[in-house]
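Structural prep section.
Before we set up the soaks we want a predicted structure of the protein with S-adenosyl-L-homocysteine in place, mainly to decide which crystallisation condition to try first. Input record follows.
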Amino acid sequence: MWKARIFTLYPEIFPGALTKGIYGKALEKKIWNLDLVNIRDSAEDKHKTVDDTPFGGGSGMLLKADVLGKSIDKNVQQGERIFYLSPKGKKFDQKFAKELSKEKTINLICGHFEGVDDRILNTRKIEEISIGDYILSGGESAAFVVIDSILRLLPGVIGNVTSNKEESFENGLLEYPQYTKPQLWEKKSVPDVLLSGDHAKIKSWRLSQSEAITRRQRPDLWKKHIKKNKNEKH
Ligand code: SAH
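Run finished without errors. Recording the tokens verbatim:
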């Protein structure tokens, strides 16, 4: 069973949307599970304080290293990787999702306020993950993104294994456009080639669409794709 242990001030919001559809079924089948840790349970004073003001001044509050440290030490098992969701982290992508889908258990720390006391990161060997170049109010929505992208990669979660292989990013290209019934809708028909039954032709049409979309929408990915293809030919 693949497991994510989530350190949060708001455990009640999980598993939330992750119980719907295929993920709900996979949860019942015990393919994955969440272990929720309320950071506040490790606060020691009678007010259950988890945050404090930054030394040197500045706005906002920081999650305290002593509280987080205690919470981590009580819950993380030896050998497990620990991640702090943070805008300063390594950018999360499909490759990263694949890597994490192969771990048995990952630990995700959701920050709040202005972030965490920096000392916690080194002392507990925490890796930082960012889901993109923008600032969220807390790490929980980022944890949902990370877990969602991993769950669909676990064996047995998605019925059709090939559907993962055709997804955007899998081959360095974005996915081609797709259509379903009705064939004619608001006077617009679906591309003829998709009705031809000629699988080779469909495959090559899809590839050319993928290439065109990638070149148009994501020049950065397109550049990488061209470079990779050149290297493979040499
Ligand atoms: N002051 C910090 C931002 C804190 S945002 C800075 O400038 O770097 C509050 C919390 O939201 C963070 O502790 C983190 O857990 C989460 N968070 C915000 N943006 C994120 C992002 N892009 N990716 C992952 N987590 C993020």
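Observations: The domain at 166-233 is CATH 1.10.1270.20 (Trp Operon Repressor; Chain A).
Flagged for discussion at group meeting.
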